Every structure is written in C-alpha cells, then in structure tokens.
UniProtKB/TrEMBL annotation:
Keywords: Repeat. InterPro entries: ATP_synth_asu-like_sf, Lumazine-bd, Lumazine-bd_dom, Riboflavin_synthase-like_b-brl. This is Riboflavin synthase. One of its GO terms (molecular function) is riboflavin synthase activity. It holds the Pfam family Lum_binding.
Length: 208
C-alpha cells in the first residue's frame, strides 16, 4: 500500500531484456535502505526489488506489467517517481494507492497559470465512472486531485513543489504516456453498486 507522495526521483541506469520482460536498474537515494523482496512504487506501479546495492536497485517487469503500464517506453536516463510502501501507523498524506496501474493515459494539453500548471490527460472512457469532481487520481504514482472532468479526459493542477520534486517537469510533455490508477475506494463502490443491480430484486422462493 502506498500514498502517492513521491519521496525520490530515480534514474534508469540500465535496461536488460529478460526474454519477454525487462529488468530495470535504477539509481536512487533509496538504494542503500532497500532489500531484496521489498516492494517499491516506480511511476505508480508496485514492483519487487530483486537486487540492491549502495547506489542502485533493480526490478523485473513482466509482460503483464509492460502491457498495462508505460514501462515499455522507458529508456536509459529516464527519470522515475519512487515511493516506498506505507508503514503501519504511518501518516497517510495522499490517498490509498495500491500500485496497481489500471490503464495508461496521454498528456493532451499543458497550460501554465500564475502559480501552477494544468495538465489535461486523456484515458479510456470505460474508466470515467471511477472519477468524481475533486476526487483522487494517481498519475505516475503521484496522488492528485481531479480539477476538471471531460468526456474521456481529466485535468489536474500541479503546484510548484510537485512540479519540481517529481518527474512532471521533465517527462510530462504533450503526447507523453502516463500511468493511471483510479481511486481504489471508488472502484469498490462502483463494483458493489453494479453487483447489486445485477442481483435478483427479491430472493427466490423455496418450497418446504
């Protein structure tokens, strides 16, 4: 479980082909504190540490991960958002984030305002039902608030701190792909309501 609060921006140092999957070696200030088998969020996707030393750590991304995320587009030198899991009893500064990417989106428009930046992102329309005005969304691992909703688009406002301390300033350009995880609580609510709608309105009768 994560919170969507980015704690470090790492750099891809090496990419190795695993015969379908990819191994990413990432330079990070987290590296000395990581151990094999630990979880870490990389651009919003929960990954398992398979190697770690004083300066870098490595994760293996399997075919399913590559299909559902932007990882297949990463190259050596690319910045990545990093977050370690939330410890029990820790402060929840963002929102509940599983690190399970639902889909990828595309940065459609970047608009600079006086003190912030507005980013409009397109996404597959079947996920529209998980959005509400001023609800939560995770984009590349960042916990953000939905400022506007369009048909198949959402807009978020990025404050200067987030702009400077995440990959936003380097990677979020028009046309760039991003990882999306919709609010877990919203998905459960929608799933519960849809299951109730498909259930019988009255219980079947039983002959005794």
């Amino acid at each position: 479980m994560f919170t969507g609060i980015i704690r470090d921006v790492g750099r891809i140092e090496q990419i190795d082909d695993l015969g379908g999957g990819l191994r990413f070696t990432i330079a990070s200030t987290f590296a000395p504190d990581l151990a094999v088998d630990e979880s870490i969020s990389v651009n919003g996707a929960c990954q398992t540490v398979v190697q770690a030393d004083a300066e870098t750590f490595a994760v293996d991304s399997i075919e399913e991960t590559l299909r559902k995320t932007t990882f297949s587009t990463l190259s050596v030198g690319a910045p990545v958002n990093l977050e370690r899991p939330l410890q029990a009893g820790g402060r929840l500064d963002g929102h509940f984030v599983q690190g399970h990417v639902d889909a990828t989106g595309t940065i459609e428009q970047v608009e600079r305002e006086g003190t912030d930046w507005l980013y409009t992102v397109s996404f597959p329309e079947q996920y529209q039902r998980y959005l509400i005005p001023v609800g939560s969304i995770t984009i590349d691992g960042i916990s953000l608030t939905v400022a506007r909703i369009g048909t198949g688009t959402l807009t978020v406002a990025i404050i200067p701190h987030t702009y400077e301390h995440t990959i936003v300033s380097d990677a979020w350009v028009e046309g760039a792909p991003v990882n999306l995880e919709f609010d877990m609580l919203g998905k459960y609510v929608v799933g519960f309501m849809e299951s109730n709608e498909s259930a019988p309105s009255t219980p079947p009768s039983v002959d005794l």
